[in-house]
Each structure stands twice: as C-alpha cells, then as structure tokens.
Amino acid sequence: MVAVKYMGEYNYIPSIPAAVIFAVVFGIACIAHSWQMYRNRTWFFIPFICGGIFEIAGYAARAISSNQYPNYTIGPLAVQAILIMVAPSLYAATIYMTLGRIMIVTGGEKYSIIRRSWLTKIFVFGDVICFLIQAGGAGMLVQVSTAATGEKIIKIGLIVQIVFLALFLITSVSFHLRLSKNGSAYSMQVPWKRHQLALYITSALVFVRSIFRFIEYALGSTGPLLQHEYWSYIFDASLMVIVMLVFNVIYPGEIGDLLRERKKGDDGMELLDEQRYATGNYP
Fold this sequence. Notes:
The protein is an all-alpha fold. The protein has helices at about 15-40, 45-65, 75-105, 115-140, 145-180, 190-220, 225, 230-250, 255-265, 275-280.
C-alpha cells in the first residue's frame, strides 16, 4: 500500500466509529426517502436521494480510510473528500425545485421576485456550477502538487454556493410575506407554510455548513477547525443528517399531489375540490 500525503489529510487520528455511525444514519434516512419518493411519486427528489447516497459512500470511504491510519491510500481519501464535499449541493437542488412547486400549487407565482419559470433554472444552474467547482477542487486535494490550488477552488465554489443560498432565502422569504399578505382565500387553504418552514430550516442548515467549510479552508490545515475532527461532524455531518430528517418529517408529497391534481383541472388552474378542504378531508 502506497502512503499518501496531501494538504487536506487528517491532522488527527480519524474516528472509525463516528464514520460508521453517520454512514448508517444517512443510510436509514436515505432508505426512508426512497420509499417516500416511490409512494408519493415525487421524482424531483431524486437529486436529494443521490445526495444521501453520496453521504453514505463518503462516510463509508472515510471509515475505510480511518482504518488505514497512518498509511492512507488515495482511493478512500479521494472518495470521502469529494462525495462529502458535494453532497449538500444535491440537497440544495431539491430545495430550490420545491419552492417552485409551492409557487405553482398556491397560484402565487406573481409574488416571487424572480419569475417562477426562471427560478428553478437559475438556482439549479448555480448549484450545478457549485457542484462541479467543489468536486474539482476536492479531487485536487489528494495530491501534494495540486492541494493548494484545490483549496482555492473549493473556497470559490463555497462562495458561489453561499451567494446562491442567500439569494434563495431572500426570494423565499419575500414570496412568503407577499403571499401571506395578498394571497387568495384558496391559496390560504393550501398547506404551504409548513413546507416553507422546511425550506427555511434545510436551506439555512446548508448555508451554515457552507460557511463553516469556507472558514475551515480559509484557516488552512493549521487552523483549529482542521485540527479537530469533531468540528466537521458538528457543522457538516450532523447538519446534513438534520436536513434529511426534516424532509422525512415534512415531506413535500402533498405538494406533489396538489401539483398533479392542478394539472388534471379543466383549465389547468384547479387544485382540489373546495369541498374537500371545507370538510377537512385532507391527507
């Protein structure tokens, strides 16, 4: 086995149990999401599940890498560095798509500061850019000759992600306030606020995680955040687990149901029979 040294290498003895525990937790949440997606036919959640799979594979590779201490090999190091770094971008893509669907089912598209038809395109495109930048930078960390450049590229990717997340939060809050104030009686019957709450929680967690990662790389390999493993589990792994659990609990399946029922309407604008809401017969 060939030993590898790179700037992003652990500055501590990594914990095998911690990596295994998080791989298992992400696995359980991912299985639950796969079932929810299949049951509710919310196929736009595929990127989210892919993010969960990336987390599982990333922490599994981290466990393998941890077991190799101190003679790490490039394979597990590269896999854990890349997949754990880019997984949140896949979560963010689904968060962005969910807001677009909430706008459709509430009929509140006119209350968005960004035209709804462009909203998903803009944010998902930005997310793809973040994904590619961070993946490229993380891949460069595993070689001494390119590690410094890799760190710079990752910081650029994180800055782009932070900017898009901040813009998304502004867009989401603005839409929420304007719809609450000006929405129709029907839109107020649609249970959109709980799903907005889920978006706020999850996007804020990804936002905090991105800021943490930027500070981590800005401080460098001698900084306190890269000197202690527990920081990454607190401000990355744990936060991303919560993101998955929030959507397990507040799953946008009913948004998908409403969207399908709207498409079935005679004029393409109906959502559900008003009598269904009046009787409280809502799943």
